[in-house]
Amino acid sequence: MGGMTFLTSIAISSLFYLSVFVFLAGFIYRVSLYYSTPQPLKIPQTPQPVNVGGVVFRMAGDVLFFRSLSKGTTLLFFAGWIFHITLLVTGIRHLRYFLPMVPDVVVWFSHVAIFIGFVLLLSLVVLLIRRIVDKKVVFVSSLSDYFVLLLLICIVFTGLLMRYAPFRPDIVGIKGLMLELVNPVTAFSLLTLHPPHAPANYMFAIHIILVFILLIYFPFSKLMHMGGYFFSPTRYMVNNPRTKRYVNPWDKEPGNLTVSGEGGQNNG
Ligand code: HEM
Question: Which CATH fold would you assign to the domain 3-247?
Answer without folding.
Answer: Fumarate Reductase Cytochrome B subunit (1.20.950)
